[in-house]
Amino acid sequence: MSPTRRVFLGSVAVTLAIGPAQAQDGAASQPRVLTARKAKKRLWPEPAAESDISGFDGAAPGPLLRIRHGEELRLKLANELDAPLSLHWRGVRGPNAMDGAAPLTQKPIGKGEHFDIAMTPPDSGVFLYHSGVRAHAIEQTAQGLTGLLIVEEREPPRVDRDIACLLADWTGPEGAAPLVTTNGDTHAAPVEMAPGSRVRLRLASGSARRIMAVGFEGVKAQVAAIDGQPCDLFEPVRQTLPLAPGARFDVFFDLPGQAGAEASVVLRGMTGAAAGQPTALLRFVTKGDARPALPAIAALPPNGSLPGAIPLEKARRADLTIDGGPTPQGEARPWRINGQAATELAAKPLFSVKRGTSVSMGFINKSAIPHQMHIHGHVVRQLHLMDDGWEPYWRDAVIAPEGRTVRVAFVADNPGKWLIVSGFGTASGPVAWFEVT
């Protein structure tokens, strides 16, 4: 069954970067310095004061990093913040030492210190980088410590514009509604293009907590990749995508064929905010002569390094029963996984497997809130609970609603120590880890 009929029915701000001027040259002789520091940003109009942010190179979101598949990414991460820092590369199946899961895989970077990052991402796609020190990650991400890494295909599909679009939401002054920024701004400036132009939109969420419903108006959008991995081409239900924290979608669409037409990407709603009129995140206006017709939008080539099938009959089963946390009455309880305290990292892994082992993992959520469970260093297939099939796409996180069970499967093919963490909730949410030897 297509994705339009399954998970996307049950799940329910932005920086635009276009062109090489903002790209990271992966072949540069010296690593790029990426500095985390405090800054000010105008989010709400006067008389409200400028907002305090924490940004990479003083900006929120951080710079777009763009390399070609097979190139090495080299950075020097410098910390000028008072709190410790690390950098997690969400969705990148890279080396464990570069995962940024402090203190599991590295020592946190203190104020005035730096950390050298060098890795060659194994997959093309769009990936999120953000703060990775568990005690500070939610707060630092909410203050702007996010950015995008794009690993371009060696032979990318033909488009007229490739747009990287990172959404971020902000909590405002008392009484103010949450704010979603588009391109780091609060207003969606129109993008002028020729009629019939083809757009590749790399849509991502840098939100720390909220799920956003993002829709498309005036175009027929088609999704070609989820969380950086190619999938079967499909049209979103009601032209709307549920964008959970850290999620990424590659969306292709053709603009109308006549001049003077408009199209837009809109925010139709988000969790924790009152419903209102759709807000334009990105606007397109057609101008001039129509471009020559292009062939129909096609699916991206599948990632040949991922298995076509997962042998579930040989899989190591690992269930995580999650309980604790806030009660409906507001009582706070410590998080537990399988009956054991799970607020801090355990001394031993939840399980250990040899490289190449299939894993079937269940998230049994007995708490009163949903959990977005993110698996580091791997991508997973979400399994069907009523049969032995799985969804036709890969993800690096799945949502386990309160009182429900969600099961995933993957091949543990990346050696190291890897977090399993609730990325949707509080900084003290449940956490575990597993080891691949």
Record the SSE blueprint:
Elements: H1 7-10, E1 16-17, E2 32-41, E3 51-56, E4 65-68, E5 73-79, E6 87-90, E7 114-119, E8 125-131, H2 134-142, E9 146-152, E10 161-170, E11 179-181, E12 190-193, E13 198-205, E14 212-217, E15 222-226, E16 229-234, E17 240-243, E18 248-254, E19 262-270, E20 279-286, E21 316-323, E22 336-337, E23 340-341, E24 352-353, E25 357-365, E26 371-375, E27 381-382, E28 397-400, E29 405-412, E30 416-422, E31 431-436
Parallel strand pairs: 2-5, 4-9, 10-13, 12-20, 21-25, 24-31
Antiparallel strand pairs: 1-10, 2-3, 5-7, 6-8, 8-9, 10-11, 13-18, 14-17, 14-19, 15-16, 15-18, 19-20, 21-22, 22-23, 25-29, 26-28, 26-30, 27-29, 30-31
Features of this protein?
mainly beta; Immunoglobulin-like; 3 domains
Structure overview:
- It is a single chain.
- The protein is 3% helix and 41% strand.
- 45% of the residues are buried.
- It has 437 residues and is an all-beta fold.
- The strands form six sheets. Strands 1, 10, 11, 13, 15, 16 and 18 form a seven-stranded mixed β-sheet that branches. Strands 23-22-21-25-29-27 form a six-stranded mixed β-sheet, with no helix packed on it. A five-stranded mixed β-sheet has the order 12-20-19-14-17, with no helix packed on it.
- It is built from two helices and 31 strands.
- A hairpin with an 8-residue loop joins strand 30 (416-422) and strand 31.
- It has helices at 7-10, 134-142, and strands at 16-17, 32-41, 51-56, 65-68, 73-79, 87-90, 114-119, 125-131, 146-152, 161-170, 179-181, 190-193, 198-205, 212-217, 222-226, 229-234, 240-243, 248-254, 262-270, 279-286, 316-323, 336-337, 340-341, 352-353, 357-365, 371-375, 381-382, 397-400, 405-412, 416-422, 431-436.
- It folds into three domains: 17-152, Immunoglobulin-like (Sandwich), CATH 2.60.40; 161-286, Cupredoxins -  blue copper proteins (Immunoglobulin-like, Sandwich); 312-436, Immunoglobulin-like (Sandwich).
- The longest helix has 9 residues, at 134-142.
